[in-house]
Specification:
Elements (H helix, E strand, L loop, with lengths): L2 H13 L4 H8 L3 H13 E3 L6 E3 L12 H10 L9 E5 L6 E5 L9 H18 L1
Antiparallel strand pairs: 1-2, 3-4
Helix pairs in contact: 1-3, 2-3
Length: about 130
């Protein structure tokens, strides 16, 4: 059995839920060989965008894209598949309208215009207080 056939067989048996020992017994190979093949299968993959083979570093997060260019291109082409959970609803400190902000849970103003107007009104109030 050549190396590619071995990888395919081990992968099929892992997909069926077999453990290292059982796979080793089925294919008459050592447990160490099964472990090596499984680790190799886990650390290699294909780019989600261009399908180029990529290798992940053991102990780090699995790579999904081969480059930033591919990652951005995939995100722009598949906005519905991107799982955006960080939407926050706030009330503007200046105009008191409700607004949503993505990724910032501490935002105070709905726009830059409200921020500037709030600062201007604070300056006027400070001058009147003096």
């Amino acid at each position: 059995m050549n190396e590619n056939e071995l990888k395919i067989k081990v992968n099929e048996l892992r997909q069926e839920g077999y453990g290292y020992k059982r796979i080793a017994k089925e294919l008459s190979i050592t447990i160490g060989t099964v472990r090596y093949v499984c680790l190799e299968l886990e650390t290699t993959g294909n780019c989600k965008n261009c399908n180029t083979k990529i290798k992940s570093t053991k102990g780090k997060k699995k790579k999904l894209f081969c480059s930033d260019k591919c990652r951005l291109q995939w995100w722009n082409n598949n906005p519905s598949k991107v799982n955006k959970k960080a939407y926050y609803t706030h009330e503007c400190n200046h105009c008191h309208k409700e607004f949503t902000a993505y990724g910032n849970s501490k935002r105070l103003y709905c726009s830059q215009e409200c921020y500037i107007n709030s600062k201007k009104s604070n300056e006027v109030n400070d001058d009147e207080a003096r």
